[in-house]
Amino acid sequence: MSNAIIELLNQHRTQRNFTDQSVSDATLAQIITSAQQAPTSQYLQAYSLIEVTNPHVRQQLATITTRSTVATQGRLLVVLADQQRNVQLAATPAAKRALTELDRFMGSVEDATLMTEAMVMVTESLGLGSVVLGSINNDTQAVIDLLQLPALTLPVFGFQIGYPATQPEKKPRLGLDAILFKDHYAQPASYQAELTKFDQTLHAYYEHRSSGAREEHLAEMTRAALGTAAKRRDFLKIAQRQGFLPEIGD
Ligand SMILES: Cc1cc2nc3c(=O)[nH]c(=O)nc-3n(C[C@H](O)[C@H](O)[C@H](O)COP(=O)(O)O)c2cc1C
Fold this sequence. Notes:
Belongs to the flavin oxidoreductase frp family. By secondary structure, the chain is an alpha+beta fold. The protein has one domain (4-169, 232-241): NADH Oxidase. Helices cover 47% and strands 12% of the residues. The protein has 12 helices and 4 strands; from the N terminus they run ααβαβαααβαβααααα. A 4-stranded antiparallel sheet has the order 1-2-4-3, sandwiched between helices. α2 (25-35) crosses α6 and α4 (84-90) packs antiparallel against α5 (93-100). It starts with a helix and ends in a 9-residue tail after the last helix. Bound molecules: flavin mononucleotide (FMN). Flavin mononucleotide (FMN) binds at residues 12-14, 16, 65, 131-135, 171.
């Protein structure tokens, strides 16, 4: 079974290197407005975007995300979780408080996340590529300061868009036996076999890929991914400084 959307998803690759071809304002607007049709929790549209054009700020974001191309290539957005707008609209103390608590904090991060994935797909449908940059939160406070973010906003992702300069190989994904359970959380008999199979697929992908080939296994890769946690331990405190999660400490 296939159609244009399935084919698009099947061809997804994150792009991290972009050509000099500029992304027009009309294209950027199309990507954003189409992606805004993503589902949004309680219809609150609790996100906003900042396009970063200042070369000095882009350079600083390149340093924070450890990606030099962020400084110069393509167009760069920062996607924010944003309850600032809704707090202004709701305007009663009870509503204001509810918008800052965990439930709506999560709602704003969920909205920002779904919006971002929708931008990934629209971008690719137009022949462009993108990279989602969670690494913007390697230094959340610096991003807040650089972008002058008000209370009840937080950076969720950087999002860089451009015309792909390379064609990375497609990264494999786990099979259904590892991620789809029936009725309750019960790993099927084939679960371990699927993990072993995926480990082999992953190993072959990293061994043979044209750029950055290396020896890689699933368990080690999972452990290595946790390195970012150390950089982000202050995230809770920063979220609270931004006015979120007042119930912690109540
Ligand atoms: C929440 C999130 C954060 C990410 N952050 C980064 C990042 O900071 N830097 C980066 O180069 N890629 C980042 N990525 C891209 C992932 O590395 C990429 O999606 C993953 O390796 C799978 O590769 P693929 O998208 O090409 O299939 C992020 C992706 C997600 C979903």
